[in-house]
Amino acid sequence: MHTDHVGKVPLLFKNNFNGQVITVKDTKHIIKYMWEDSSNITGGVASLLNKYDDTDKFEPLYDNADIREAFNNTIELDFYNEYHLSDDMYLTYIPAGHIFKSGIVVIDFKTSHKRLVYTGDLGSDNIPYYFVEDRAEIPNANVVIAESTYSYKDAEEITPHDDRDDMMRKIKNTLRNNKTVLIPSFSLQRTPEILYFLYENLKDYYGEYEVFLDSPLSYKLFNRYRKSFSKLQELNHWDNFNVVKSAHKSEALCMTPDKPRIIVASSGMCVPYTRSSFHLQSILESSGSLLLKIGYAPISTDLGRVFNSNDKVKICDTDYDILCDKISYSSFSSHIQYDEMLDVYSKVKANNGFYLVHGNSNSKDAFADRLNEVASEENNTTKFYSVNRNDEIEF
User: Fold this and answer.
1) pLDDT tens string for the chain (395 positions)?
2) Residue 113 DSSP code
3) Any idea what the Cα angle at residue 234 is, between residues 232 and 239, rounded to 5°?
4) Could you state, in order of their start, the residue ranges of all structural domains in the chain?
């Protein structure tokens, strides 16, 4: 239920959709926070465009009334609880292991005895998560539609335990040198995970330091997670932990000279003019400060440009020398990786085909070929296909 999966749902109601939205239990309030954040962002962009264009033709994608309509028509469903969609059609969610309460969709057609499975994004069994259910086994079906985000063979090897040990060594070294650690983080899932990781590893660290959470959306979601996970309540008693609630205090934090501190801020990609982007600008020329990248960031984003540059970078029309230390860790990913995906998918039986979506076209094609090879070696007759927008599947 990251925004790229649920962000346009209120737009359906704005355009007179009168049906129901079905999601997994304990997620509708989380999704509502995502919608509200998206509405605020698109509303701000529309206001700026109207100002510079001297017009009123731009408007947010949807407003609070559309969000209320979507929220009031959202139904929550427990995992493994079959839900009656129509006379012949039944829906069941099973855990996808990607983020908290993410689900694989299983649709059964009772009369024809056929089954359709849509995985959505899948998590990895090889990456330790604090707040995610274990991924369920993908059931056999007539048709399976599955993600292929990391379907390229040269995807970086994931070494979560080594990465976490190395990351904590570098963080403590930076704090001992009275410098700043900046961790741009996605608000949903990644921020609760990284905050608890910091707490678990620093609660008995007696050096001087502070930890700041700087993101209104992250704080809302963090509080929601605390209702479901008692271990997050431990942060209530962490004297080093601070929440930055106002834009004014965030700006003041940016302007404060380096101190032994860790700033966890969104957006996770340092999109221009977000809080993490401003913090990024404040530490780039601070020798000895540390920038940690713990998620995907394309080169079109501020964070992506920094990690694809050696000595200089332009952010928000200003040139900066890159003097801070920077390091990227891939093992905080929420996605299943190449080798594990190959092993899991090749064992699934799908009589009418297994279809790959949500990935780069070139890597998907090669991955489908490799899946067909491995499945054949294992005497699995399933055929694997790479498909694109507007392709039709006969079912």
Assistant:
1) 678 888 999 999 999 999 999 999 999 999 999 999 989 888 888 888 888 888 888 888 999 999 999 999 999 999 999 999 998 999 999 999 999 999 999 999 999 999 999 999 999 998 889 999 999 999 999 999 999 988 887 656 678 888 999 999 999 999 999 999 999 999 999 999 999 999 999 999 888 899 999 999 999 999 999 888 999 999 989 999 999 988 899 999 999 988 999 999 988 888 888 899 999 999 999 999 999 999 888 888 899 999 998 889 988 889 999 999 999 998 888 889 899 999 999 999 999 999 999 887 788 999 999 999 999 999 999 999 999 889 998 87
2) T
3) 120
4) 3-153+335-386, 160-328
Q: Does domain 160-328 have CATH number 3.90.1150.200?
A: no
What topology does CATH give the domain 3-153+335-386? Metallo-beta-lactamase; Chain A (3.60.15)
Give this prediction's pTM.
0.90
Length of the chain equals 395
